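Thread: Newbie trying to understand structure tokens

Hi all, I'm a second-year student working on a class project, and my supervisor (Dr. K.) asked me to get a predicted structure for one chain before our next meeting. I've only ever worked with sequences, so writing a 3D structure as a token string is new to me. If someone could post the tokens and maybe explain what I'm looking at, I'd be very grateful. Here's the chain:
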Amino acid sequence: MKIILFKILSSIGVLNFLRKSKKNDLTVLSLHRISDENDFFFDPINPTLFEELVVYCLKHYSIITFKDIEKQTPKPKLILSFDDGYYDFIEFAVPILMKYNVPCNHNLVNACLHQKSIIWTHKLNDIFGHLKRENITSDKFLSDFNAQFNGNWWAMYASVFQSMLKMKRDEREILLMNWQELHQIKSNVKMMSWEDAVDCHQKYNVEIGCHTYNHESLLSVTSHIDLENEIGKSIEELENKIGCKVNVLALPNGQHNDDVIKYVKHKNIKYTLLVDDKTTDLKNISDSGNLISRINLINESKEEMLLRTELFHAKLKQLK
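---
Reply by user tm_fold:
Sure, no problem. This is what the structure looks like when written as tokens:
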């Protein structure tokens, strides 16, 4: 029923109406994994669907990167902005991007590039994937979060995720490690290496950005030293190892506080990316401290994804 509704909305011109209502705002799409795998808690966008998205965006937008924001374009500007550095970006996204000669931005996590280790959010996804498959609802670690199941896996996952955002990194990593060991969970996901990151920049027309050193929730980072380790150190290392200027910072999970914004302004980071399902008025961008809104895309029907791209879901949420 839901799919039929979105097909009807697309067929009667809602996409065109919504696109025109953006005027000349910058549209930035927040993307993560592109793969034919399935994951209940973090489902990658199917490659066929991603290609349909690229074709749609090429038809209606000028696809650029952040370095070209100030240039004039024949159509409204749009940026494809990836986070995290999953290897399936190279396997599935890059061939499509190269097929259509489309640039993109990819914001990388240094610790993952060093060790090919996965970020803590994906470790949590793997744990919950195991709990769901085995129907384990009384896990001893879950009781520490007072997470109520009541038949709703998403609600329980969200409760634990929000609690972990507020934890210190060491505390969270120990908990995740012990949780994985209890259930003997090993992740099969692959992350990019430094060599892959260099190839992205030099061969695949990818603009490299910073996604912090450890993908730390910046809500729990307040001291200047910690911010320097997460952001300043990350940018410096990316520039040295990849050989490019890094002007983009993508805040993990869009989380920030006043200390983070002050630090970003002090470091003269040109563009700081949020995940707030909005577009950005480029005429007033300097007034906002160069904060850039992004629209988070997920794996869903083509019609629903395109409506989400044109802010249908965000406007519906405002009405509620």
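A couple of things are worth pointing out once you decode it. Residues 39 and 129 are 7 Å apart (CA to CA). The chain has two domains: 2-117+193-319, 120-183. Feel free to ask follow-ups in this thread.
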